[in-house]
Design brief:
Blueprint: H1 4-16, H2 25-55, H3 67-73, E1 79-87, E2 92-95, E3 108-118, E4 135-141, H4 144-152, E5 164-172, E6 175-183, E7 188-195, E8 204-206, E9 212-214, H5 229-243, H6 247-265
Parallel strand pairs: 4-5
Antiparallel strand pairs: 1-2, 1-7, 2-6, 3-4, 3-7, 5-6, 8-9
Helix pairs in contact: 1-5, 2-3, 2-5, 5-6
Amino acid sequence: MVNVNTVYTTVLSILNKEQRGYVTPDEFNRLAAQVQLEIFESYFPDGTQLNRQNQNNTQNDTEFFNIFKNQEEKLYEFQKEINFSLNAQTLLWYQTAAVNSTDYVASIYWMGDILSTYNSSLVGNTDPRPSSSGGQFVTQLVSKRDYNKITRSRLTAPTYQFPIAFANTSTVANFDNVGLTILPTPNAVNVNCVVMPRVPSWSFNVGQAGQYIFNPGSAVNFQLHISEQTNIIIGILKYAGVIINDPTIIDVAAQEAAQVQANEKS
């Protein structure tokens, strides 16, 4: 992770070096959230581009210099297995608010494999499986249109071994969840996901002279890989130039960001 206080103090030092202006903590937090999101979202198209090079065997494959593997590592922090809960009235499986009891409230960015669990308690007269069968099966995620077509046909109707699902949005307990309709109805659902990063926050207390004093106890660091610290600082400086109306900072930061990206993708 990247320390939010390190980034903020660095940004202020650069801006104040030539008395160019000042960014308040509230402005910084807004810019920090935007820059982190931009970097996070860039991993996916960049990863696709790098994977093409990887498949063509045009990349360095030494331990620390394979840029595709390095890019993939940046997403490890955001890969979670999330338990979904069943709404007994709507039969909709929805995302629980927290990844786990000690983690932050996470919004799903991408869903990977959906794993539906069935066991012998579901076996009935219409169950084609042997009474001893059960287990966890990968569930095919389809569109609502395809879901309707598949479930209406006897030949393509979903089974316990080949369940299907479609996704929609459901608001449960004032939290916007990713909801899943799954057939046949399982006992439990786990989804491999990429979740959104925490929103960074430079938290502070106000001193006797009205100064801002960093409060590490309630601050939230950037969740991005430590290698992104330079990109974060450059990105925030680019937007800070807009706030303080200094085109010089915007131009320099944009040129530096372009150079960094060119080096990373070359």
